[in-house]
Structures are given as structure tokens and as C-alpha cells.
């Protein structure tokens, strides 16, 4: 059987889902028999070098770069998986959705208790810096997502079982404990 | 024995007493019907509709419908399961239910129902409301973005004279459950903890104590909601 190709990314996330991915421990050796990695922070490949079977998305969309990367993944991946609460519902970054961008930036760069160096009271405005979205949105409100794996972070067993199920085409039989929202 | 009647739930014959509700009859006989706004011991309200069953092919709320002889009740139909799941999904999208950051996570009935009904992601878009958080009481935080308006706190949290601590405020889309400002100042520790416990979600939080139980030993970590009834 030809190896399936996997790509992963972290958008507005904390890399916790990737850490949980590594928590499959010695099963990583089995995984590497089943799949090969393409664009991913794990191998540091920056651009897709071939069509990918499974794209794993951690984190929601908080800025224009997140949206661009997510669309880039959708174009290059046959299957997209939303991994973790942030990808599924915005997660902790989405807690700013009730606060305006002006207020967020002012708190971070002007008025926050740890702001000491910004004497000229400059807000980041370089065109190289991604624009913040007015609110953080889940991935499936931007592109079509095929599968959802909840958790903060998703349990390693859930990630492993789901990956094996997608790669081998076998149905999942998950115990109650592995699907949790926290 | 004129007071005993026979009903059928999912093909299982049950003998029960006249005057009970379908929910009570089912619970007595080890059949779990999910509930959310219903609280044992207070009159049912039938507002959340999650306990809907098909009685002789018609949708009825089991918490408020009394049993009658010869009823055939369907509690496990695909249509009902999807209907219940959609109610849970709607409750999730209409509030801000950030489970990883919620003190009630693991002990939350809404979350437990989502697990039990197999919700991975709501099919509706999130609304991300921006409601008030009332932390004026020394004992209680009332987080309105998590409130599902079940009225359980209104019905169960009272002082010795029967005066209620919580009440509905405003109407329609703006409806909210509020804690009385004056009574909230004087609420006892015991009642405040009771209020947090009776709240099915994390809308009422007892101040000064959060995340006290580790992940793995909370109410719904190991066993799904309703499993104690089914045993």
C-alpha cells in the first residue's frame, strides 16, 4: 500500500494539539510506516511539495494569514480535519469576540500593565503584519472541513484512532473517555 | 389494583402507577430519558424539549406528560435522537460555551448531553453573544453568556421564607436570569454552592473555588450522563 501523505498546521492555536499528537508516543514508529509527512511544523516543510491526503488543522482563524493558510490547505488536501476546540469553535482566542479590535490592541500595546517601552504609542501597522479579523471564527466557517476531533487538547488516543481509521478506512470504535471538550 | 397501568417504552413493558409522568416511570424502570430544564422535586416546565419522546406517534415532553394506560412510547428513534442533538447544538451556539475555560466543565449537564448524543461540532454557526457577567455578589458569579434559561435556579434556590434569589428579567430575545442584587449580597455559602450545583451549565459559579476536581475524577469524565439510571 502506498503511504498516505499528511500535512499539519497550527493557526490561532497554542500548539497543544500538536503536543498531544506527539503524545501517541511509540506509536509514532507505527505511524511512520503508514504515512509520510509533508508541510508541517514537525518536519519544517514550508510549502506543499505534492498533493496531500490528510490535512490536520489546529486553531481557528484570527487573522488574514490564518485564513490564507487554511485556504492553501483546502486547495492541497483531499481530507481536512479540524483538531481541537480552537479549530472547531474558536476556543480561547475567540474569547475576544465580545471586545472590539481597538480595545484589544489598546490593551496589548498602550494601556496594559506590562507595556513600558511603547513611548510613541504606536499600534502595529506594518503591511507585512497580518490583519486581525474582527472576530475569531472556527475553520468550518471559512472552508469545508471533513472531520472534527474535539478536545483541549484532543486525547492522543483519539488522534491515533482517527488517523488510523482515515488511513485504513476501518470504522472507529471509540471509548466514551476519549471524546471530551476540555 | 386500579391504580397500576401498563405502558411500553421502546418495546419494553412497564407497570407503573397512575399520576406519574412518563419521565418518572421510565427512570423507575431503568430507562434513561435525557433532561435539562427538569429538576426532580419541583414542578416540570417542559421548556427545553430535550426529554421529548414519541407517544403513540406524537411528540410529547416526557417530564410533563402523565402516563396513561396502553401508551406506546418511543425513546430511541433516530428522529428523536437527531432532534435532541439539534437542541443541544442550538444551546451551544446561542451562548459562549468555552468548555476548556469553564469551571463547570466535566460536571456540566449540557456538555455531558453533547457527549452522550454524539455531538462533535454544532451544525449551526456560532453567535458569540456579548452579555453581562454579574460578579457583584460576594459569593456568586452569574455569567450570562453561559445561561440556557432553564429556570432551575429560580425554582430551587429560596430563602427560609420562600423568597427567590433568582428571577427572569426582560423579555424575548433579551430574556435573562438575574440574581437579586440585595439578596445576592447576603446569600449563604451553602445556598451559593447549591445554586452552582443545581445549574446544569456553568452560568452560576461559586466564588473562590474553581477547578477543584482534577480531570478524570469529575462527574461525567468516565461515565456518560444517565448511566446511573440504566444500571
What does this structure look like?
The complex is a heterodimer of chains A (182) and B (231). Chain A is an alpha/beta fold and 182 residues long. Chain A has a single domain (4-96, 134-178), classed as Rossmann fold. Helices cover 31% and strands 20% of the residues of chain A. The longest helix of chain A has 13 residues, at 64-76. Chain A is elongated, with a radius of gyration of 18 Å. Chain B is an alpha+beta fold and 231 residues long. Chain B has two domains: 15-76, Ubiquitin-like (UB roll) (Roll), CATH 3.10.20; 84-208, Alpha-Beta Plaits. Helices cover 25% and strands 17% of the residues of chain B. Chain B has helices at residues 22-28, 78-94, 109-117, 152-156, 181-186, 189-198, 227-230; strands at 4-9, 12-17, 52-55, 58-61, 72-74, 133-134, 140-143, 166-169, 176-179, 204-206. In chain B, the strands form three sheets. In chain B, strands 2-1-5-3-4 form a five-stranded mixed beta sheet, with no helix packed on it. A three-stranded antiparallel beta sheet of chain B has the order 6-7-10. A two-stranded antiparallel ribbon of chain B has the order 8-9. In chain B, strand 6 (133-134) and strand 7 (140-143) form a beta hairpin. In chain B, helix 2 (78-94) packs across helix 3 (109-117). The model of chain B has no long low-confidence stretch (mean pLDDT 94). The chains are: A alpha/beta (182), B alpha+beta (231). The A-B interface holds A 82, 85, 88-92, 94-95, 97-98, 135, 137-138, 140-141, 148-150, 152, 176-177, 179-182 and B 96-102, 105-106, 111, 114-115, 120-122, 125-126, 128-130, 145, 215, 221-224.
Amino acid at each position: 500500500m502506498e503511504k498516505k501523505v499528511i500535512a499539519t498546521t497550527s493557526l490561532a492555536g497554542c500548539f497543544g494539539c500538536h503536543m498531544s499528537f506527539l503524545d501517541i508516543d511509540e506509536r509514532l514508529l507505527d505511524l511512520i510506516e503508514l504515512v509520510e509527512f509533508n508541510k508541517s511544523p514537525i518536519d519544517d516543510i514550508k510549502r506543499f511539495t505534492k498533493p496531500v491526503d490528510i490535512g490536520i488543522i489546529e486553531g481557528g482563524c484570527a487573522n488574514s494569514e490564518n485564513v490564507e493558510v487554511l485556504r492553501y490547505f483546502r486547495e492541497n488536501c483531499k481530507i481536512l480535519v479540524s483538531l481541537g476546540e480552537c479549530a472547531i469553535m474558536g476556543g480561547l482566542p475567540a474569547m475576544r469576540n465580545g471586545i472590539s479590535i481597538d480595545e484589544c490592541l489598546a490593551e496589548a500595546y498602550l494601556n496594559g500593565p506590562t507595556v513600558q517601552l511603547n513611548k510613541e504609542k504606536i499600534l502595529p501597522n506594518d503591511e507585512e503584519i497580518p490583519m486581525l479579523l474582527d472576530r475569531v471564527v472556527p475553520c468550518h466557517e471559512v472552508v469545508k472541513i471533513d472531520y472534527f476531533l474535539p478536545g483541549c487538547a484532543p486525547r492522543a488516543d483519539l488522534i491515533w484512532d482517527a488517523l488510523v481509521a482515515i488511513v485504513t478506512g476501518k470504522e472507529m470504535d471509540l471509548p466514551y473517555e476519549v471524546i471530551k471538550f476540555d | 389494583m386500579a391504580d397500576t397501568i401498563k405502558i411500553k417504552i421502546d418495546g419494553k413493558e412497564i407497570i407503573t402507577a397512575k399520576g406519574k409522568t412518563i419521565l418518572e416511570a421510565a427512570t423507575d424502570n431503568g430507562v434513561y430519558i435525557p433532561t435539562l430544564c427538569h429538576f426532580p422535586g419541583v414542578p416540570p416546565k417542559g421548556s427545553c424539549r430535550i426529554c421529548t419522546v414519541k407517544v403513540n406517534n406524537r411528540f410529547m415532553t416526557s417530564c410533563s406528560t402523565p402516563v396513561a394506560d396502553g401508551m406506546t412510547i418511543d425513546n430511541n428513534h433516530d428522529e428523536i435522537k437527531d432532534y435532541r442533538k439539534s437542541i443541544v447544538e442550538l444551546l451551544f451556539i446561542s451562548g459562549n460555551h468555552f468548555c476548556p475555560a469553564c469551571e463547570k466543565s466535566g460536571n456540566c449537564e449540557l456538555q455531558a448531553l453533547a457527549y452522550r448524543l454524539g455531538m462533535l461540532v454544532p451544525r449551526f454557526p456560532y453567535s458569540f453573544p456579548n452579555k453581562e457577567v454579574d460578579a457583584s455578589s460576594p459569593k456568586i458569579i452569574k455569567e450570562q453568556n453561559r445561561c440556557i434559561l432553564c429556570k432551575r435556579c429560580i425554582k430551587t434556590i429560596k430563602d427560609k421564607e420562600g423568597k427567590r434569589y433568582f428571577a427572569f428579567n426582560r423579555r424575548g430575545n433579551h430574556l435573562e436570569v438575574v440574581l437579586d442584587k440585595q439578596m445576592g449580597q447576603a446569600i449563604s455559602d451553602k445556598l451559593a454552592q447549591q445554586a452552582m450545583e443545581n445549574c446544569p451549565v456553568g452560568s452560576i459559579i461559586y466564588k473562590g473555588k474553581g477547578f477543584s476536581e482534577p480531570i478524570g475524577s469529575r462527574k461525567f469524565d468516565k461515565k456518560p450522563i444517565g448511566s446511573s439510571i440504566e444500571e
